[in-house]
Specification:
- The chain has 171 residues and is an alpha+beta fold.
- The chain has one domain: PH-domain like (Roll).
- Helix content is 42%, strand content 26%.
- It is built from 6 helices and 7 strands; from the N terminus they run ααβααββββαββα.
- A hairpin with a 6-residue loop joins strand 6 and strand 7.
- The longest helix has 22 residues.
- It is elongated and about 60 Å long.
């Protein structure tokens, strides 16, 4: 009888999780964050600097300035998910700035004359985040920027409804 009891206890031990807290944390949540859009600014934003560097290339230093400006834009990456907006930048050291979308107060679509000539646009988001009160998506294709601004607006409203958060200004 003792062998049968030991076998039953051994079977129960196999069924029982070793660390139940860990297993609960590993379960997938119902609110899965998924990527909506990723992009980079256009190198056309550096066109003015590149022209000046080309004109003054005989000084040698502008060549390094042009390469540095190219690398700054090349290493910048925007990522919009269903819950956050991330900006990753940096040539030698990386920095990632995250913005919870429900903190977005307002968004603005703008085009300078230079951007209009090349079909680019900028989206600026005013936020209640202290570390980054204004988040900017600079020099992206204008047709995509209009759609992206609407997506951001819809995502912000959905997140606010889901989290039951409303923005209140005490000014």
């Amino acid at each position: 009888m003792s062998t049968q009891t030991e076998a039953t206890e051994a079977a129960r031990a196999v069924e029982r999780p070793v660390n139940p807290g860990r297993q609960r944390a590993a379960q997938p949540s119902t609110r899965v964050e998924s990527r909506v859009w990723t992009g980079r600014p256009s190198q056309i934003a550096n066109l003015g600097a590149f022209v000046w560097c080309a004109l003054l290339c005989w000084l040698v230093i502008p060549i390094f300035v042009a390469v540095w400006r190219y690398l700054l834009v090349r290493t910048m990456r925007y990522e919009l998910t269903t819950q956050r907006f991330r900006v990753t930048s940096g040539v030698l050291a990386r920095r990632t700035d995250e913005l919870e979308l429900y903190r977005c107060k307002d968004s603005e679509f703008s085009q300078t004359l230079f951007q209009r000539l090349f079909g680019l646009a900028t989206i600026a988001m005013a936020t209640s985040d202290e570390s980054s009160p204004i988040a900017v998506i600079a020099s992206i294709p204008a047709c995509r920027a209009k759609e992206l601004r609407e997506q951001i607006r819809n995502l912000v409203e959905d997140l606010r409804d889901r989290k039951r958060v409303r923005e209140v200004d005490y000014s």
